[in-house]
Amino acid sequence: MSNKDPYEILGVPRSAKQDEIKKAYRRLAKQHHPDRNPNDKTAEKRFKEVQAAYEVLGDSQRRAQYDRFGAGGPAPDIHAWTADSRFQDVPFGFGSVDDLTGIFEQFFSRGVRRPRRRSAARSMPRGSDIEHIVELAFDEAIRGTERDVVLATDGGNQSREQIRFHVPAGVSDGQRIRLRGKGQDGPGGRGDLMVKCCVRPHPTFRRDQLDILLDVPLTFPEAALGAQVEIPTPDGTTVVKVPAGTSGGTKLRLRGRGVRDERTGRTGDLYAVVRILAPRNLSPHARELLQELDQELGQHPRRDHAGSK
């Protein structure tokens, strides 16, 4: 049965529409039904072939699969029905074999249950995921790099597998990179290798997502009078302008000088955070000058605080 063409069994061309296939099936099923042909083994065999052929061609998806792969491919599910087939378990309950239309409608809804196939590999559990920690310098994290990891295989240290992978630019501390199919073996295939990125702190720069921040110390005169100061960046030094009257904590923004995320294409900014250095170990003359300056300026920075006089 498995080598026969279901189109040939039902006597329809490959171009037949679904309605034509259904009509051919009903006609042949009525003709060879065991109740119409008692004790006729040939008719019984023919009836089972018709049932199996329609099980393939009566479903548009299974028909398309059969048309694509043919009788030698994995799709056709034309199988030989045995004496204990599901067909025999269907309670037909009819009186006359001359009116079988309702019988087959009953068979369609209750008797034929097409088996759902599932890939054996997909139903089997995959191997466990493996976590590996890679330590990155600040510059490696923002620019991207290549790294190698060596894994022991077969449960021992004699056999090893070296895996080279790309760390994309813009990874952050704690971010994981998934390398699919590089984990432990399992019946359903290998698990994944999860690489956790740990970024070492930088002595000058710190990150806020895609932005880079660095502290820029200024003297009181520089902050008050304004200045041009040289600052470091991941790409080298540059000059930033400090406006006159800049207060401590002010962020001077350099657009597009932050971290570029390789995956999204977005780029952050660099912020120079002003830190004003108060002078220490004042000489008597310097103290007098500052007192005179304070009186000259007449500032009251805490006047609006609640409870102040």
CATH architecture of the largest domain: Orthogonal Bundle
Please state roughly what percent of the residues sit in beta strands, choosing from under 5%, 5-15%, 15-25%, 25-35%, 35-45% or over 45%: 15-25%
Q: What coarse outline follows from CA principal-axis ratios?
A: elongated
What's the rounded overall pLDDT mean? Answer: 79
Under CATH at level 1, the class of the largest domain stands as: Mainly Alpha
- How widely separated are the two ends? 104 Å
Main sheet specs:
4 strands, mixed
Largest sheet, spatial ordering of strands: 6-7-11-10
Structural class: alpha+beta
**Into which percent range does the helicity of residues fall?**
25-40%
Total count of helical runs of at least 4 residues: 9
Number of domains: 3
Oligomer: single chain
Cα Rg: 40 Å
Let me know the number of strands: 11
CATH superfamily of the largest domain: DnaJ domain
- Unreliable stretches (pLDDT < 50, length at least 5) are 71-115
Strand-and-helix sequence, N→C? HHHHHHEHEEEEEEHEEEEH
Quote the CATH topology of the largest domain.
Helix Hairpins
Structural commentary:
With 309 residues, this protein is of the alpha+beta class. The protein folds into three domains: 106 residues, Helix Hairpins; 70 residues, Urease metallochaperone UreE, N-terminal domain (HSP40/DNAj peptide-binding domain), CATH 2.60.260; 92 residues, HSP40/DNAj peptide-binding domain, CATH 2.60.260. The chain is built from nine helices and eleven strands. Strands 6-7-11-10 form a four-stranded mixed beta sheet. The protein has a three-stranded mixed beta sheet with strand order 1-5-4. It has a two-stranded antiparallel sheet with strand order 2-3. A hairpin with a 2-residue loop joins strand 8 and strand 9. Helix 2 packs antiparallel against helix 3. The longest helix has 17 residues. The chain is elongated and about 125 Å long. About 15% of the residues have low confidence.
